From TrEMBL:
Domain called Aminotransferase class I/classII large: residue spans: 63-395
Family annotation (InterPro entries): Aminotransferase_I/II_large, Class-I_PLP-dep_aminotransf, PyrdxlP-dep_Trfase, PyrdxlP-dep_Trfase_major, PyrdxlP-dep_Trfase_small
The protein's required cofactors: pyridoxal 5'-phosphate
Biological process, per Gene Ontology: alpha-amino acid metabolic process
Lineage: Bacteria, Pseudomonadati, Pseudomonadota, Alphaproteobacteria, Rhodospirillales
Protein name: Aminotransferase
Protein family: Belongs to the class-I pyridoxal-phosphate-dependent aminotransferase family.
Keyword Transferase: yes
Domain of life of the organism encoding this protein: Bacteria
A Pfam family: Aminotran_1_2
């Protein structure tokens, strides 16, 4: 008898859908394409010589080298967790290493949190738009998404309050340089978000992937820092997700969860059942790299990405039609476009790649309700300023032609 594999696969797994971004990157890698699609760091900014020295130094030290090749504890290396705790404290978030779990990138953290807190039919509040990777992680648990709109200051509090009043008790939010829009919350809006969550006893999942990539203005405290818990390691409204992927190197796959101890204890059990622990040698290298390279390397990244952002915004100011609007991010890697209502960004992408040799990500994929057909995400991270300018000019010309059809 032939196995009917589609019937064997459980509904949770069948809920997964391919990532539009992953599929798009395969095509956008062609050298003739100016790609604003991938939300990935610029590989030219990876500190290769430093990493070479750190790997050589680690493996040439017999005791440290053998330790780095061995199994380790599921929570993550104590030294690395202490570095993260100390770094959080600098921004006002006082947490102990027992509040921190090392994960295989922030994406694994999203997956584990989804399996911990979500189940079929449970509601989770999402910004509109929101990070596609989070929705992929959450979708396997088949929750009900409750989308709330954003304004220039952050999520609309009346909508957040209404979502919690209707029964939702979890919200996934990105207050700093959000993927995909690049927007950040004001301090007043951050305080209002926390006040609203506490009013209903709701959990805030704070994605802090881009918080270190600030290019101008004052850095605002995270929701975690504002969620004052005193000396109680078991208390808190906020679970924060962090990563070295945007500031050191994605291939290290070093992320972390900062959460109250009851959450961490359960996640550790899940980690033990899943993959035991994150690569020991990668944790050792991440600790050495963070200790040696920060804060100087962060300044290098900020200077480089600031120049790229300025190139993109300058080109958009010069070339885009008046009926195209776009965000003006103060950090991160993304600019968010809103096109005229008559332009579907998915259809535009097909023509852009064929005629203008430019790639971007259609915005509809970032909406939990599949709205936003006339929106798009542009990343300025990997292209050179001169190619950014050329690509925006070509695309603006295409948009102007379509708008006049």
């Amino acid at each position: 008898m032939t196995i009917q594999w589609n019937e064997m696969i459980v509904p949770d797994a069948r809920a997964l859908r391919a990532s539009e971004i992953r599929d798009l990157l395969k095509v956008a890698e062609r050298p003739e394409i100016i790609s604003f699609a991938g939300g990935v760091p610029d590989p030219d900014l990876f500190p290769l010589a430093d990493f070479r020295d750190m790997f050589d130094g680690l493996t040439s030290d017999e005791t440290a080298g053998r330790r780095s090749l061995q199994y380790s504890i599921s929570e993550g290396l104590p030294g690395l967790r202490q570095w993260i705790a100390d770094d959080l404290a600098k921004s006002g978030a006082t947490r102990d290493i027992d509040n921190i779990l090392i994960t295989c990138g922030a994406q694994q953290a999203l997956d584990m949190i989804a399996r911990l807190l979500l189940e079929p039919g449970r509601e989770i509040v999402m910004e509109k738009p929101s990070y596609l990777g989070a929705m992929q992680a959450f979708s396997m648990r088949r929750p009900n998404y409750v989308g709330i709109n954003m304004d220039e200051d952050g999520p609309v509090i009346a909508e957040l309050d209404a979502a919690f009043a209707a029964g939702a008790r979890i919200a996934y939010l990105a207050p700093d340089f959000q993927n995909p829009t690049g927007r950040s919350y004001t301090l007043d809006r951050r305080m209002a978000v926390l006040e609203t969550a506490r009013k209903y006893g709701a959990v805030i999942l704070e994605d802090a992937a881009y918080c270190k990539l600030s290019y101008e203005g004052e850095s605002l405290p995270s929701l975690l820092a504002l969620d004052e818990v005193g000396s109680d390691p078991d208390a808190g409204t906020v679970i924060q997700l962090g990563t070295f992927s945007k500031t050191l190197a994605p291939a290290l796959r070093i992320g972390w969860v900062t959460a109250p101890r009851p959450v961490i204890r359960q996640l550790v059990l899940m980690k033990q059942a899943g993959d035991l622990h994150v690569s020991t040698i990668n944790q050792e290298i991440a600790l050495r790299a963070a200790t040696k390279l920060f804060p100087a390397h962060l300044e290098t990244l900020r200077d480089a990405y600031r120049a790229k952002r300025d190139a993109m915004l300058g080109a958009m100011d010069e070339f885009m039609p008046d009926d195209v609007s776009y965000s003006r991010p103060k950090g991160g890697m993304f600019v968010w476009l809103t096109l005229p209502e008559n332009i579907d960004s998915r259809a535009l992408l097909v023509e852009a790649m064929e005629d203008a040799k430019v790639a971007f990500v259609p915005g509809q994929a970032f909406f939990c309700d599949q709205s936003g057909q006339n929106t798009a995400r542009f990343s300025f991270a990997t292209e050179k300023p001169e190619r950014i300018r050329a690509g925006i000019e070509r695309l603006a010309d295409l948009i102007r032609r379509k708008d006049n059809q």
